[in-house]
Design a protein that fits this description.
By secondary structure, the chain is an alpha+beta fold. The protein contains 4 helices and 16 strands.
């Protein structure tokens, strides 16, 4: 059984169940920053003035979402063709794509007229006690071919591979999903009990907004933000 030493830095272990080429091992999400984000300017005009318009690139919550956790990618090429009026999947690694009957989730908003394919993920995951993982499509970084269905797994007790049901965005076209294509964003989090309440106490937000309005640039990042680390 895998055990963890007590440490401030939490450990997540990706367990290779089939012998995946090292090029296609899971990596921190920060290595998958999308091209659109890299290309956009931080402000218009480029000069940093109080009147300039800051773009989404200056929004730290967006960057935190993009870089949270880890990315699992396809370990091989998958070619989708049309056979007898339905998508047909041919993977370089045999049986990489499995299926769920459509009736298992026919009311899901992403459901189409076909059965649900699923990635047979080759990676088991082990997290420290009390930690689970959220599996989701990549934040702000969609691909043109497919989208997985999100889910949460208690990976401290369940360390077997978690498979990813998905739907094709265009199930009537032939195309190839190349090896190394990002499949899922994996975000570990601590399980805790929460209780909601409501308040109209202005003191809970007024001090924050006053402090925020005291500066022109990078206010949230400089005054409130905490750096996150996924190695």
């Amino acid at each position: 059984m895998l055990k963890f030493k007590t440490s401030k830095t939490k450990k997540i272990i990706f367990i290779d169940t089939i012998g995946v080429a090292k090029e296609y091992a899971p990596k921190p999400a920060i290595k998958f920053i999308p091209d659109w984000y890299k290309k956009i300017e931080t402000s218009f005009p480029k000069e940093k003035t109080p009147d300039s318009t800051r773009t989404i690139k200056k929004c730290i919550p967006v960057l935190d979402a993009i870089t949270a956790g880890y990315i699992i990618v396809s370990p091989c090429d998958v070619y989708i063709s049309i056979k007898d009026g339905e998508p047909n999947y041919n993977s370089a690694i045999p049986n990489l794509i499995q299926f769920h009957p459509r009736k298992q989730a026919y009311t899901h908003p992403l459901a189409n007229e076909y059965k649900f394919p699923k990635w047979s993920n080759p990676w088991g995951i082990k997290t420290p006690q009390g930690y689970s993982c959220l599996f989701k499509p990549l934040a702000h970084n969609s691909n043109p071919w497919f989208e997985i269905l999100e889910g949460v797994v208690d990976t401290d007790t369940y360390s077997a591979a978690v498979n990813f049901p998905f739907v094709l965005k265009n199930p009537t076209k032939e195309f190839m999903i190349p090896a190394g294509t990002p499949i899922a964003q994996v975000i570990p989090f601590k399980r805790e009990e929460w209780e909601s309440s409501f308040s109209d106490d202005k003191k809970l937000y007024q001090g924050v907004t006053n402090y925020l309005s005291s500066q022109f640039f990078d206010r949230y990042k400089r005054l409130f933000w905490s750096r996150k680390s996924y190695l």
